[in-house]
Amino acid sequence: MPQSAFAEWMKACHDVTEGAVVVAIDGKTLRGSYCRGKGKGAIHMVSAFSAANGVVLGQVKTAEKSNEITAIPELLKLLNLQGCLVTIDAMGCQKKIATQILQKGADYLLSVKDNQPALADAFEAAFPMAKVASFEGDAYVTDEKNRGRQETRYHIVSDVTEEFQELSYEWP
């Protein structure tokens, strides 16, 4: 299968470059891949991108009537993530996915948005904006204009409390 051959080749590249420090996993719909005449929907892929090497390490097509949550675990199986930091948007913020990343010898950075109300509320309660803006621990701020809007992101490093460990959101 070409997909597994590609993944094996990328594993070899990954090993030669002593690993990619950050591996970003994200899903994208391939523009123009649908065909109304044949009743085919657009192709949706989930890819793992090595920030250090500037290459895609692997990708998996999502099954029809599925989503990234089912494709991400399949992609993770293909990757050598030992020592990496894996980043995933809010769609991939799942206990099973986080556990799989840890089992691969990597760490993770998962996003939380309002599609997970209990977790988002817990974050807002624990880290109100006034506390985040004046955080004295490890922190970083980015400010950029993106897609026609101004975005300011506050990044902080904090211990994970037991309260956060008990929260979860599982996609239906």
Describe the fold and architecture.
The protein has 172 residues and is of the alpha/beta class. The chain folds into two domains: 1-111, 2-Layer Sandwich (Nucleotidyltransferase, domain 5); 113-172, no CATH class. The chain has six helices and seven strands, in the order H-E-E-E-H-E-H-E-H-H-E-E-H. Helix 2 (68-78) packs parallel to helix 3. The longest helix has 15 residues, at 2-16. The two termini are 31 Å apart.
Key descriptive features of the protein:
single chain, 172 residues, alpha/beta, 2 domains, five-stranded mixed β-sheet, 32% helix
Whole-number count of domains: 2
Which class do the helix and strand fractions yield? alpha/beta
The average pLDDT value, as a whole number, equals 79
Beta-strand content: 25-35%
Query: How many angstroms separate the termini?
Result: 31 Å
CATH architecture of the largest domain: 2-Layer Sandwich
SSE pattern: HEEEHEHEHHEEH
Strand order of the largest sheet: 3-2-1-4-5
Main beta sheet: 5 strands, mixed
In terms of per-residue confidence, which ranges show pLDDT below 50 for 5 or more consecutive residues? none
**Range of helix content:** 25-40%
**CATH topology term of the largest domain:** Nucleotidyltransferase, domain 5
- Counted by DSSP, the helix tally is 6
The geometry reads as globular
The CATH superfamily of the largest domain bears the name Ribonuclease H-like superfamily/Ribonuclease H
Radius of gyration: 18 Å
| CATH class label of the largest domain | Alpha Beta
What is the β-strand count?
Answer: 7
